[in-house]
Specification:
By secondary structure, the chain is α+β, with helices and mostly antiparallel strands. Helix content is about 45%, strand content about 15%. The protein has a four-stranded mixed sheet. Belongs to the glutaredoxin family. CC-type subfamily.
Length: about 100
Amino acid sequence: MDVVASMVADRPVVIFSRSTCCMSHTIKTLIRGFGTNPTVYELDEIPNGQQVEKALQQMGCKPSVPAVFIGQQLIGGANQVMSLQLRNQLAPLLKGAGAIWI
């Protein structure tokens, strides 16, 4: 879990993804649509991807991708992010983390 903590430190929005995952693509598109520039880690393209994926699963991410952190806090996967969007709570989280300025 320390590896994940170091990867999300000092970044307003971090998305752990797989380059072939359609839900990951959807969440990245949604979050970028707010004008954010998230840090994206494609677990199938980074050297320690399997280690990071195991750590995400230990943190409760099932499935492990997409996993979204806003303001260094684990928000969850696609279902949690979409639920926040439907309740109009995603934009305020992004603003509070300094990812958007509207």
